TrEMBL record:
<keyword id="KW-0256">Endoplasmic reticulum</keyword>
<keyword id="KW-0408">Iron</keyword>
<dbReference type="GO" id="GO:0020037">
    <property type="term" value="F:heme binding"/>
</dbReference>
<dbReference type="GO" id="GO:0006082">
    <property type="term" value="P:organic acid metabolic process"/>
</dbReference>
<dbReference type="InterPro" id="IPR050182">
    <property type="entry name" value="Cytochrome_P450_fam2"/>
</dbReference>
<dbReference type="InterPro" id="IPR002401">
    <property type="entry name" value="Cyt_P450_E_grp-I"/>
</dbReference>
<protein>
    <recommendedName>
        <fullName>Cytochrome P450</fullName>
        <ecNumber>1.14.14.-</ecNumber>
    </recommendedName>
</protein>
<dbReference type="GO" id="GO:0016712">
    <property type="term" value="F:oxidoreductase activity, acting on paired donors, with incorporation or reduction of molecular oxygen, reduced flavin or flavoprotein as one donor, and incorporation of one atom of oxygen"/>
</dbReference>
<dbReference type="GO" id="GO:0006805">
    <property type="term" value="P:xenobiotic metabolic process"/>
</dbReference>
<dbReference type="GO" id="GO:0005789">
    <property type="term" value="C:endoplasmic reticulum membrane"/>
</dbReference>
<dbReference type="InterPro" id="IPR008069">
    <property type="entry name" value="Cyt_P450_E_grp-I_CYP2D-like"/>
</dbReference>
<dbReference type="InterPro" id="IPR017972">
    <property type="entry name" value="Cyt_P450_CS"/>
</dbReference>
<dbReference type="InterPro" id="IPR001128">
    <property type="entry name" value="Cyt_P450"/>
</dbReference>
<keyword id="KW-0503">Monooxygenase</keyword>
<dbReference type="GO" id="GO:0005506">
    <property type="term" value="F:iron ion binding"/>
</dbReference>
<keyword id="KW-0732">Signal</keyword>
<keyword id="KW-0492">Microsome</keyword>
Length: 489
């Protein structure tokens, strides 16, 4: 009985605190659905499709509103105008990284994606500088992608046009490209460590997009329970061991006058700042940054490729038109290159439409305001989490008529020329836009064109029976499992 009384008092205090907090911020934060004590608006949101719930709420509350994931308020920005105004026009104020507890627990605020403040600024600035300047040693980034694409072609030919799951092979190309940046070496596709590494990336992206993780992020105390968060933690620990092995190898062979790759550049910077107690160039930050680059550089691109092939299987007429353009511009006897893109408007439009349609990260990674901020007629306190609903931009029906339809025409003008769109925010926008956007754009164009230059995609079922609905739509949109045949042309 005493324990029951104590629990009742504690719960009452929590409820009172929540109600006081709600009344204290009322009139400052944008309006939104009335939250319940403790659980907030969780019961009003579809955990299997938060993005759809956000769209429904926007109809009632407009482009700027507040929802509570548990006891924490999140300001939602819906539609191009609101998102552009925040991320671009007020980029500095909205450049913070919001809380994402399942990842925060493993990165501890380190790295380039989930860090904040001076650590984020220094790490991002350094990372972008190295990525731009190092040029893969003696090879350009484009050369590296082209060579990996040819390795992919060789591996696909070994399938002998038999049904295969493309997941691992499509992940191998971007993983090896980023490996060359970080480690200055690539892995053979038969390497067991390499296969395991990609398996962990796939598992993490799928798990982080499940409804359970939506719940975990609202109530982090759920970490004491069994669940998919434990798979993410286990995979992260194993990936870190792999990264530490590579860092140790680099430390033993480091030549300060001749840096070979990202790790060398970072180790040299650590040495330069070893007497600076406030330095952000530490071993822990190096490891977290490598994990960020590996994760972002591998999984997002490989998932886009996997989803892209599924859409091309569903729409063979589009695949055939791309192949026709490849034949006209590139032919059969040379590798596709980035110079070809300007002469291949239809292929360029298809790549953009794949990214728009799959809506890979529907609600973006969480942002946060870095200071008390006046936004439109509202006041947003420093540190408040900001959810930028990218779906509302990529599926804007005025910019992209009939947005639910996969149609490359969304990026073509009346004359068949490629048409740019400010609404194409597949890489987000502003100061927190994807640092690897240029690399990802090159990979998507070169890999897809190389595949279609060498193979016709054959589905195992009638195209009209192919279901492209994501199996999970949380942080990311995870495509359904499928197999296909790569028929040499």
């Amino acid at each position: 009985m005493d324990l029951f009384i104590i629990l009742a008092i504690c719960l009452s205090c929590l409820i009172l605190l929540f109600l006081w907090n709600g009344s204290n911020t009322k009139g400052k934060l944008p309006p939104g659905p009335t939250p319940l004590p403790i659980v907030g608006n969780i019961l009003q949101l579809n955990s299997k499709n938060i993005s759809k719930s956000i769209s429904m709420l926007a109809k009632d509350y407009g482009p700027v509103f507040t929802v509570y994931f548990g006891m924490k308020p999140t300001v939602v920005l819906h539609g191009y105008e609101a998102i552009k105004e925040a991320l671009i026009d007020h980029g500095e104020e909205f450049s913070g990284r919001g809380s994402f507890p399942v990842i925060d627990r493993i990165t501890q605020g380190l790295g380039v994606i989930f860090s904040n403040g001076e650590r984020w600024k220094q790490t991002r600035r350094f990372s972008v500088m190295v990525l731009r300047n190092m040029g893969m040693g003696k090879k350009t980034v484009e050369d590296q992608i082209q060579e990996e694409a040819l390795c992919l072609v060789a591996a696909l030919k070994k399938t002998n046009a038999s049904p295969c799951d493309p997941t691992f092979l499509l992940g191998s190309v971007p993983c090896n490209v980023i490996s060359a940046v970080i480690f200055q070496n690539r892995f053979d596709y038969s390497d067991k460590k390499f296969q395991t590494l990609i398996k962990y990336f796939n598992e993490n992206f799928e798990n982080v997009s499940t409804p359970w993780i939506q719940l975990y992020n609202a109530f982090p105390f759920l970490r004491v329970l069994p669940g998919s968060h434990n798979v993410i933690f286990k995979n992260y620990a194993l990936q870190i061991n792999f990264i530490l092995e590579k860092v140790k190898e680099h430390q033993e062979s480091l030549d300060i006058s001749n840096p070979r790759d990202f790790i060398d550049y970072f180790l040299i910077q650590m040495e330069k700042e070893k007497h600076n107690k406030q330095s952000e160039f530490t071993m822990d930050n190096l490891v977290a940054t490598i994990w960020d680059m590996f994760s972002a550089g591998t999984e997002t691109t490989s998932t886009t490729l996997r989803y892209g092939l599924l859409l091309l299987l569903k729409h063979p007429e589009i695949s055939a038109k791309v192949q026709e353009e490849i034949d006209q511009v590139v032919g059969k006897n040379r590798r596709p290159c980035m110079q070809d893109r300007s002469r291949m408007p239809y292929t360029d439009a298809v790549v953009h439409e794949i990214q728009r349609y799959i809506n890979l990260v529907p609600t973006n990674l969480p942002h946060a305001v870095t200071q008390d901020t006046r936004f439109r007629e509202y006041f947003i306190p420093k540190g408040t989490t900001i959810l930028t609903h990218l779906s509302s931009v990529l599926y804007d029906d005025k910019e992209f008529p009939n947005p639910e339809k996969f149609d490359p025409g969304h990026f073509l003008d009346e004359s068949g020329n490629f048409k740019k769109s400010d609404y194409f925010m597949a890489f987000s926008a502003g100061k927190r836009a994807c640092a690897g956007e240029g690399l990802a754009r090159m990979e998507l164009f070169l890999i897809l064109t190389t595949i279609l230059q060498n193979f016709t995609l054959k589905p195992l079922v009638d195209p009209k029976d192919i279901d492209t609905t994501p199996v999970h739509r949380g942080l990311g949109s995870v495509p359904p499992f499928y197999e296909l045949c790569f028929i040499p042309v």
